């Protein structure tokens, strides 16, 4: 599903050059639930962003669904992200000025689907994460766990084959975190969604199929 | 997408209200300025109705009040003959003080078909008046030598008065006024913009002076040959002063009068234009600042939108569309207010003036908003999603 070959990422500022990722090669199969662990600053988010086509590697290839992504235009990349990938972030990234339902509808907006269809899919997605009774709320009126569930609903509304989650439980207590984890496990099991999750929590990682450890931009396990 | 933008704007109505008010106020100011400009331009582009160059105006204090009318008329005829003997003098007419660009008016009214027609400019016009000002005759004729014999007092009217009195109907030969004082229209001249070139012409009638009216005349309009100079002006002055002992004579040129008369309209317009220009610059900077600020505040949102499938161009398009939509909302309110002016006929201007002003103000506002949002929008498109998402 996702194939990384010799991925290198170098950040250059005026004074320093950071090698954030060093020759990472990784194959993630369809339906796999992979977790990534490693100390802070080791390049986990960078790797996830590259997989999600939000960032480009300095060297190396990214293939998604057997398609090379290096030469894709901005428009094609946007299309890819919209159709294939759902993102979940540690800090949720909900739009505070939009109600829950409108937040969840967002990916469908970029597919030019009709208002009715958008609403229906968003409602279904919110049902899946158990938030159908909060659709008219603004993000400010929700708890952290609820916000993350909205973010998951947004990630799954377009039925993507891949979900990339960057510390989805990082801001939550363990009860809330387990709830989120259960939703992801359920998605993986029933819908066969491929999931890559960055986590700091060994317990969470243990529930996934495979664990990759990074250290200083290099894969150590 | 439009619905989405509406939702976004609606949910941020507090933040947007300031921007909306700014756009609304600028629109109303622009509407006022454009109304004035369109009105003045329309007047300016109409024919003047007379020729000002090489016309001099001599004002004098008439001290003939004691002599009888006939001798006064003879006195002026004599003076005229003397003046015409100067080779540079082409035409001389004596009249009242309401010469073009003088700021003086003299108005009258008369009944016509049971209606009282008011605010008609009344010009005492000798036979030579037409030549002095080179009035443009549209229909009929100007006064002739033996006019005195006619039963009804002959008058020449301008086109505007003709339209008010007769519409598209025939004007020549029509009788106006009451039984005691009947007047007959013998000619129609083009409207003359006597106030200045940026103001509309008024209704006008030209009446041949009776001998009795020479008592009150204190102005001569003299058409001189092109290139007549100060030395000639001195000779003319001397000639008049010799004839009219003890009179205070002042000679001015219509060309100079025109400039100062035009300025009475232009200067306020320029001041207003400058003030509103600064206001608009201020609004533009404010608009630019707010949009710029918004975009920086919305970096997270922009990154997120990119992550879920927006292209860079899509982002800048959305931001520009948001601004234009906001402007449209403000304009809808503004147009509602602006449209009241023609509907209630507040200032008695032609509806066309308002409609053009409305159009210009709308186009200007859209252009302003577009210009102010294009650059911030472009910057937003360049925001790197991975970085923006990383920040908070
Ligand atoms: N935009 C950037 N410019 C320069 N350096 C960057 C940039 N983004 C990340 N880095 C560097 O790249 C390295 C990897 O960062 P990354 O965010 O991937 O770490 P991480 O493993 O996700 O850490 P954390 O667990 O704290 O989220 C770090 O050293 C960071 O300083
Ligand atoms: Mg990270």
TrEMBL record, chain A:
Family designation: Belongs to the ABC transporter superfamily. Macrolide exporter (TC 3.A.1.122) family.
Name of this chain's protein: ABC transporter ATP-binding protein
Keyword terms of this UniProt record: ATP-binding, Nucleotide-binding, Translocase, Transport
Gene3D superfamilies per record: P-loop containing nucleotide triphosphate hydrolases
Keyword match Cell wall biogenesis/degradation: no
GO MF annotations in UniProt: ATP binding; ATP hydrolysis activity; transmembrane transporter activity
Listed Pfam families: ABC_tran
A single GO cellular-component term on record: membrane protein complex
Cross-referenced SMART domains: AAA (SM00382)
Positions of the ABC transporter domain: 2-220
PROSITE patterns registered for this protein in UniProt: ABC_TRANSPORTER_1, ABC_TRANSPORTER_2
Highest taxon listed in the record's lineage: Bacteria
Automatic annotation (TrEMBL), chain B:
Gene Ontology CC annotations of this record: plasma membrane
Transmembrane segment boundaries: 20-41, 266-295, 324-347, 353-375
Domain named ABC3 transporter permease C-terminal: residues: 275-385
Gene Ontology molecular function, alphabetical: transmembrane transporter activity
Coiled coil: 237-264
Record's bilayer topology term: Multi-pass membrane protein
One matching Pfam family: MacB_PCD
Domain (MacB-like periplasmic core): residue spans on this chain: 50-230
Alphabetical UniProt keywords: Cell membrane, Coiled coil, Membrane, Transmembrane, Transmembrane helix
Subcellular location: Cell membrane
InterPro entries (alphabetical): ABC3_permease_C, MacB_PCD, Macrolide_Exporter_MacB
Family assignment from sequence similarity: Belongs to the ABC-4 integral membrane protein family.
Protein name: ABC transporter permease
Organism from which the protein derives: Deminuibacter soli
